[in-house]
Amino acid sequence: MNTVLHAVAHPDARPDFRRPGVGAVLVSTWRVGSPERQRAAVEAIRTTWESREWPDLGLLSYSVYIGTDGDALLHHSQWTSEQAYEDFVRSYRNAEIDAAVPGIERVVLHRYAPPYRSRVLDGPGARALPGALAVVEVDFEGPDQGRRKDWVDTVFTAMDGDAGKRPARGGIAAHFHLSTDGTRVLNMAEWPSERAHAEWQADAPLDGAWARVHHYPGIAASRVRRYTPALSLSAGA
């Protein structure tokens, strides 16, 4: 007899970014318009997913984060492969969610490989559950795998230089993904709070290794957005 799997919501709302078996990472953004609609959309997602069987064994986890801008929702899902996602999306429908929160704007979907490099930070909050996610997106001028990897390596050099010099302010971890189209790097950095990340960012040096990070040749654009964990789902009997 086949075991029927259902969506299980995890209270810490934290995916394992270094989970084995992940072949593809999908990250998308919705805009919903207000903090009230953000919360309503998250509740509609949870209710919808918990009312169904787990849709596909190729889906390993699905997590949602609430933007501190009062508008956005960030969706992060881990798959065994991109093909598993393609097979799923052909039959998946958002009708219940759209009925609960009409007018959702589904802005963009990006595809990534599993993290190229991750760093579990050594600050005082390193063992804490994350209360905030700082999402750093860096776009490059055209596809170049080597250039993106070198930029990430440059960030790690700068972080190594920070050790013992600049307070980590409770930083938990940083996970650097490379997009499959060759043009972008995504860093999903876990922090104990939005304030902790803001204070660390305000204290960032503008010279030395960090200057090389910020002025790296070939960067077309970069942005930082903050989110709070809201929901993380995986399959359970």
What does this structure look like?
This protein has six helices and ten strands, in the order E-E-H-E-E-H-H-E-E-E-H-E-E-H-H-E. The model has no long low-confidence stretch (mean pLDDT about 90). It has helices at about 35-50, 80-90, 95-100, 145-160, 195-200, 210-215; strands at about 5-10, 25-30, 60-65, 70-80, 105-110, 115-120, 130-140, 175-180, 185-190, 220-235. It has about 240 residues and is an alpha+beta fold. Strand 3 and strand 4 (about 70-80) form a beta hairpin. The two termini are about 15 Å apart. Strands 1, 2, 3, 4, 5, 6, 7, 8, 9 and 10 form a ten-stranded antiparallel beta sheet that branches. The radius of gyration is 18 Å and the shape is globular.
What Rg is obtained from the alpha carbons, in whole angstroms?
A: 18 Å
The span between the termini is 13 Å
| Form type | globular
Q: Note the beta-strand portion.
A: 25-35%
Helix % is: 25-40%
Largest sheet: 10 strands, antiparallel
Structural class by SSE content: alpha+beta
- Summed up, the helix count is 6
Q: What pattern of helices and strands is seen along the backbone?
A: EEHEEHHEEEHEEHHE
pLDDT average, as an integer? 90
Strand runs, count: 10
Low-confidence sequence ranges: none
Give the topology.
Elements: E1 6-9, E2 24-31, H1 35-50, E3 59-67, E4 72-79, H2 82-89, H3 95-100, E5 105-112, E6 117-120, E7 132-140, H4 145-162, E8 173-178, E9 184-191, H5 194-202, H6 208-214, E10 219-236
Antiparallel strand pairs: 1-10, 2-4, 2-5, 3-4, 3-10, 6-8, 7-9, 7-10, 8-9
